[in-house]
Amino acid sequence: MENKMSGKDLVQKTLVLIKPDSVKRGLIGEIISRFEKVGLKIVALKMVKLDKKTAEEFYYSDENWLATVGSKTLTRYREMGLDPKKEFNTDDPKEIGKIIRQWLIDFITSAPIVAIVLEGVNSIEEVRKLVGSTEPLKAPPGTIRGDYAHMSIAYANWNKIVLRNVVHASENEKDAMREIFVIFKLEEIYNYTRNIEEVIY
Description:
By secondary structure, the protein is of the alpha+beta class. The protein is built from 11 helices and 4 strands. The mean pLDDT is 92.
């Protein structure tokens, strides 16, 4: 039997974190408005200061994740003609991933963040398009990171700090579901109808 997908299967939920740098800069309203203007629906929203345990759960230490993060950093270093061993004392992707994960945990717990669950058609892909490249230096104008940040991976690593890139956005559906329930309880996520849904769905 043919497995047919319905339009409702394309309506997804995704997580966005407005990071400490954005909260301190007063960008909360501006960033949220970007998502609302394209028709994405806020179904959960709160300001919270993550503790270390929650942050460690959020930035999980799966070996594949660590290797991916480290490999991206190594690739960017090679593109810029830099030697990662000078900054990290290693060129092992997993070890670099561990260092970056600790920077991420230290930063995300340093001050309040705003956590948002957004719902919409292909919302995961839509949000990542609006947010722009992970590295603000490469994010085009018009994206959130392209408009509100400019830091490079190399600069962040030289200074032993996490990349200041304004927001976090879930990368795929599996990550979105895991990340949402690290931050939110089920009863904090609402199901309601907006009066514009007839023209956006």
